[in-house]
Design brief:
Elements lengths: L46 E3 L26 E10 L3 E9 L7 E9 L22 H9 L2 H8 L1 H15 L7 E5 L2 E5 L2 E2 L2 E2 L10 H20 L2 E2 L8 E4 L2 E4 L6 E2 L6 H18 L6 H12 L1
Antiparallel strand pairs: 1-2, 2-3, 3-4, 4-6, 5-6, 7-8, 9-12, 10-11
Helix pairs in contact: 1-2, 4-6, 5-6
């Protein structure tokens, strides 16, 4: 079975037709809207001007960018509703549209991390071991008090996820394309299937052939990660999406260095166990110890 990578991905064909925003967004609660009252009076309360052109290069997605990314300074972001609530962040759907462009707009996922006073969960410190704020680029940005420096200071987990998304996309991994980061909000590709949000892997019941193919995709993605010295750190069927016949990995703020983090190998083993148990429960003969050994052989 073959797979088509997402449009704009390093391994994907360059041709892409952006889908029109759906008339109805299944699963989105319109009661939750973001307060855009600080924006221009001529916009509605649930709208704001795109800040794409105001952002530094590090705050924009990697090149080459997918054709669907709207970069016009005249584009308007319209809040469509909330998609998912979490302990540290909520995900909203936002349509970015240039009123003067004939091609319409695009709906993206906007992940907004809460500040430390409003989080109900704090990630274990074990994830941050070996992760440095020693990165010279970030330290220089902090000292210069640049836009990127302010983001680094304001949101460690937002920055961590943004950095991980960029790195994974550049490695050719199946992750949402990261469009931009602004303060503690990350805008990224909205992963869909048949016009609706793609379900979590935990929610699907694939047939035997697709199940085996999903496992091959998982092995390939994990192999690419460990070859780059990285571990997802919290991988499970609940943060893996099934976009038709394609797996997409999401929720990356806790990504760790396989060697630099003292528990890197433990996290990798746990990722293998979490995924292996799900595949085994669906009838596929999977040995997570064998998968772990295979991955470690690629790591060194």
């Amino acid at each position: 079975m073959t797979h088509e990578p997402p449009p704009g991905h390093p391994s994907a064909p360059t041709e892409f037709l952006a889908a029109e925003p759906p008339d109805r967004l299944a699963g989105v609660d319109d009661r939750f809207v973001f307060d855009f009252s600080t924006y221009a009076d001529e916009l509605d309360d649930h709208q704001r001007w795109s800040r794409w052109e105001d952002l530094e290069a590090l705050m924009r997605g990697p090149e080459p960018r997918p054709d669907w990314v709207v970069t016009s300074s005249g584009a308007i972001d319209t809040e469509l509703g909330i998609l998912k609530t979490g302990k540290e962040a909520d995900v909203f759907l936002v349509e970015r549209r240039d009123p003067n462009a004939p091609d319409g707009g695009v709906v993206m996922a906007a992940k907004r991390y809460r500040d430390t006073d409003h989080r109900t969960f704090h990630r274990a410190a074990s994830y941050t071991e070996g992760r440095s704020m020693k990165r010279s680029r970030d330290n220089r940005a902090l000292k210069r008090k640049s836009s990127w420096g302010r983001i680094v200071a304001a949101g460690e987990w937002a920055v961590s996820e943004w950095t991980a998304l960029r790195r994974c996309w550049e490695l050719g991994l199946p992750v949402p394309y990261p469009v931009q980061i602004d303060d503690t909000e990350i805008m990224m590709e909205w992963i869909t299937h048949d016009g609706e949000t793609a379900p979590r892997l935990a929610q699907v019941r694939p047939d035997a052939d697709l199940l085996a193919d999903f496992y091959d995709q998982l092995r390939e993605a994990l192999t690419t990660l460990v070859q780059a010295g990285l571990v997802h750190g919290d991988l499970s069927p609940y943060n893996t999406l099934a976009a038709g016949e394609r797996l997409v990995v999401i929720d990356l703020p806790q990504m760790v260095d396989l060697v630099g983090n003292p528990k890197g190998m433990d996290f990798l083993m746990r990722d293998c166990a979490n995924m292996g148990q799900w595949f085994r429960a669906r009838g596929l003969a999977v040995d997570e110890q064998e998968l772990f050994g295979e991955l470690m052989a690629h790591a060194f």
